[in-house]
Design brief:
- Pfam families: bPH_2.
- By secondary structure, the chain is α+β, with helices and mostly antiparallel strands.
- It has 5 domains: 2-49; 57-138, no CATH class; 159-230, no CATH class; 257-333 and 394-475, no CATH class; 343-382, no CATH class.
- Helices cover 45% and strands 26% of the residues.
- The protein contains 14 helices and 19 strands.
- It has helices at residues 2-17, 22-49, 88-92, 120-138, 165-183, 187-198, 203-230, 271-275, 308-319, 325-328, 336-363, 367-393, 431-436, 457-467; strands spanning 52-55, 59-64, 70-75, 81-86, 95-101, 112-119, 147-151, 234-238, 242-247, 252-258, 262-270, 278-285, 301-307, 395-399, 402-407, 411-418, 422-428, 438-445, 448-456.
- It has a 7-stranded antiparallel beta sheet, with helices on both faces. The protein has a 6-stranded antiparallel beta sheet with strand order 13-12-11-16-15-14, with helices on both faces. A 3-stranded antiparallel beta sheet has the order 1-2-3.
Length: 485
Amino acid sequence: MTGVAAGAGVPAVLGLAAGHSVGFALAWVLPAAAALVMSGVLYDGVRWHRTRYRIGVSRVELRTGVLLRSRRSLPLERVRSVDMTADPLQRTFGLVVVRIGTGQRSGAGESTLELRPVAREEGDRLRAVLLDRVRAAGGCPPEAADGRLASLDPHWIRYAPLSFTTPLLGLVAGGVLLQVADWIGLRDSVLRRAVDLLAVLPPAGVVAVLAAAALSAGVLGSLGLFVETWWNFRLDREPGGTLRVRRGLLTTRSISLEERRLRGVGLVEPLGNRLAGAARVDALAAGLGTGFDDDSTDHATLLPAAPRALAERVAAVVLGEPVSPTASVRLTPHPPAARGRRLRRALAAAAVPVLGLAVLGLSVDGVLLVLAGVVAVVVTPVALALALDAYRNLGHGITGRYLVTRSGTLRRRTVALQRDGVIGWTATQSVFQRRAGLITITASTAAGAFSAHDVGESAGLRFAEDAVPDLFGPFLERVEPAPRS
């Protein structure tokens, strides 16, 4: 509630101060902010006193609410995680928020119970009691060695700016600066001052200065975001078969993952990190999702961007293997037809801005025709290079208990998936793939679906059958060789 009051009060003070004195603005805003904070504190106090929870023989139960009472419970055998977070204010008072989850996705939140807040000692006790009961009920891998698996190396911060989010953070910083200037009535003067400073530069110089400013702000933002997210990072294997990730500077997080839910690991290498020899390790586990859809850090990440060799070692230790499957397997390349598909897509993507500028140049200003030519000369080779890299990164293979797939260029993904965790296969083939003799094979698991894209038809079906025998085979039509005369 304090954050809400500050978020509403700061713009209000700045807005009122634009036409009046700061004292006048504070006289209006401070009483309202104080009332908002006090009402929030009172409400939270009543809610906290009326909240009850208990761990029974078979269920964990929570009863809370002020005007609307809520009673919820989760079966103990379905509890899969007990995570703790604490923002700076909660840390000051020794409090944490405990989230008890089942590892299932639910829009209404039926799969999670949240205790907000409890003492840190109580949070540790709840975590130990709940996970001990889960381990006793489900067992754990006895061969796994407990202890510290990885901890933060300050040198890893150099990988933070090597992301496509860095320039976006710079643009966001510029937008925030203009918004603050608008609140205090200085937006026009700031813009006018910036135009006056840039007016003496040629167009190329203006672009270079703006790009440098945005990139500098983005680098600072990415460094700050990395420090806030991964400060004091530790990855431990605790007795009983639980992986525990602890991290955070201002807001601390403690995330637990049962190893018996683990179905494999994924190495994620954004282009910048890959060029620098770094990779991120994600867990592929039931209820966590893949963690591959964006760069945001979530419950699936076991190791932030770190040297590739270290990422491979952590993946091997997490899986209980002497060598990571992502490093030991020799991937089978995909047919040349897959390369042709990527080259055509790249040329089509490069043609869109070029054709757009050309049309505008013919109808508005001929200068845009020159710009279209420049864009074509610059963008086309880059698009073709990325397409060729995407083709080189395609691959699939089998090593021991794991099947491995790799794809992507801007964000290369290498997935090592336990073969006995595959519960189904899906073969898809578009019209264009059919003409090129290609197919996409997707393995379905409790941790999500993982695909080998644009494989040769026979090679893809054979890969699925070899990885999990008799699962896909009964649906295949086998052609017997003709007898020799």
